[in-house]
Amino acid sequence: MKISDIAGKLNLKVIAGEGGLENEITGGYTSDLLSDVIGNAKEGNIWITLQTHHNVMAVAMLKDLSAVIIVRGLKASEEAIKKGNEENIPVLSSTDDSFTVTGRLYKLLEME
Predict the structure, then answer these.
(1) What is 6-23 written as a DSSP string?
(2) pLDDT value, residue 111
(3) How many whole angstroms separate alpha carbon 81 and alpha carbon 73?
(4) What SS3 class is residue 106?
């Protein structure tokens, strides 16, 4: 499934990295610990987090993640937005919490 499809179906706001919206995802990973994501997320995963700082994008690049969803309506830092645009890694926003976004994403991927 493409990031653009997920963004539409989950009502996510695109805040950066529009050039990567056609990226395919391989699954999802939910965590707020950068070290956990580095150790366990898989290439192509979409990462669900409440972290908003620029190190999120460094981890997304390191792990070759397809996109990042920031939950609870939190705002990504300017540095994170800039890096998402530079690297074409979509940064998406949801007003829902991590549990809700993860469940909704799981259902979408399970149906595919």
Answers:
(1) HHHHTTPEEEE-GGGTT-
(2) 83
(3) 15
(4) helix
Written as six digits, the tokens of 53 are 């700082």
Q: Which helix (H) or strand (E) holds 107?
A: helix 98-111
- Rounded Cα–Cα distance for residues 31 and 55 (Å): 14
Q: How confident is the model at residue 112 (pLDDT cuts 50, 70, 90)?
A: confident
For helices 55-62 and 78-87, what crossing angle results, to 10°? 30
CB atoms within 10 A of CB 33: 11
Instruction: Give, rounded to a whole angstrom, the gap between the first and last alpha carbons of the chain.
Output: 8
The number of C-alpha atoms within 13 Å of 4 and in the hemisphere containing its C-beta is 7
Give SS3 for 18: helix
Strand duo 27-30 + 13-16: pairing:
unpaired
Q: What is the pLDDT of residues 15-72, one digit of tens each?
A: 999 999 999 999 999 999 999 999 999 999 999 999 999 999 999 999 999 999 999 9
